[in-house]
Amino acid sequence: MSQFIERFRSEIDSAAARNDFPEITESEIPIWRGVPATTSMADKYILALTVLLVHVVFFLGELLDSPDGEGQANFLLSVVMWLIDTTGVMGFVICMLLLTKINHYANFSTSGGWTTSWLLVTCSIPLFWKLMDIIEWIGGFAGSDITNPLPTWNFSWFAPLGVFSFLVMVTFTLLYQRSFQYAITDKRIHIRQSFLYFETSAHGISYQKVENLKADPTILGRLLGYGNIHVVTGSGVGLQVESLGINAVAPSEIREQSNGKRRLISFLLGCITVQRNRALEATDPADCLFGIRHPMDVYRLINELMDSNVGLAVEN
């Protein structure tokens, strides 16, 4: 092994690596291990802050008075506060649905099912709360004993709900980040996932099966010191087409529908599930070395190990 490889090997606890990666065989020598950096999940934290900001805006929009005086800034603030006061919970729901749709359509790393579900639940809580108040109010006129188990809704609840939603997203992001582990031995690249016992997987990639290797530090990754390494094999591991939703129904296809209800349903499904398609290297942490620190050093390490394995194969 080269001095570069030996430097990595001297820094790893082999016993701990074998304990966390039971699939590492006795004939393999652990050389490196890592996990996604906390900063690699920055996009999810930014989304959580955005949702918190929406809650705070609706909380302050009812609490504060419209600004006095002239000027464009005061005019815009007055319009925003008027809209918040007029639309109330429905305005919040519309804002959150727009945010959810934009995030889903953009097909970013935050566009998966878990995040979209969290956004929809966050959107529906105030709406459900307000509907419970309305049902209780209608029941009072009808002489019904229906009572809302929740306190009476008011805008002040946006603040604690925003904090709760933010903490839920941050907690799940931390759990998600820590559910991935990576290890490199002299013979394989190992990727393990264990997320809340719902998604578990482990696979090893032999160097002989690697057809392409690409280091992909993003602009934010370069600033914060992390990046992705994509390991592409002949079986397609490491490549994906990011299209998580149903493609939109084309207008010509909608017109061809004979039934009016089917036409409307198809159009609505198309609007909701349409998503930008992107064919690129996989950015799922379960399919690549995602968000690891010092990606270029690890990239060089894998290349040298691949060369070493090729040399051994030629000698044999």
Q: Could you please describe the fold and organization of this structure?
A:
The chain has about 325 residues and is an alpha+beta fold. The chain has 2 domains: about 5-35 and about 180-240 and about 280-315, PH-domain like, CATH 2.30.29; about 40-175. Helices cover about 55% and strands about 15% of the residues. The chain is built from 10 helices and 9 strands. The strands form 3 sheets. The protein has a 4-stranded antiparallel beta sheet with strand order 1-2-3-4. It has a 3-stranded antiparallel beta sheet with strand order 5-6-9. α3 (about 40-65) packs antiparallel against α4 (about 70-105), α3 runs antiparallel to α6 (about 160-175) and α4 crosses α5. It is elongated and about 80 Å long. Residues about 240-260 have low confidence and may be disordered.
Question: Nearest-angstrom radius of gyration?
Answer: 26 Å
Percentage of β-strand residues: 15-25%
What is the approximate shape?
elongated
End-to-end separation in angstroms reads: 17 Å
Q: Mind describing the biggest β-sheet?
A: 4 strands, antiparallel
Structural class: alpha+beta
Count helical runs. Answer: 10
The overall pLDDT, averaged over residues, is 80
Describe the strand arrangement of the main beta sheet, using strand numbers. Answer: 1-2-3-4
Order of helix and strand elements from N to C terminus: HHEHHHHEEEEHEEHHEEH
Number of domains: 2
- Work out the number of β strands: 9
Name the helicity range.
40-55%
Low-pLDDT sequence parts:
239-258
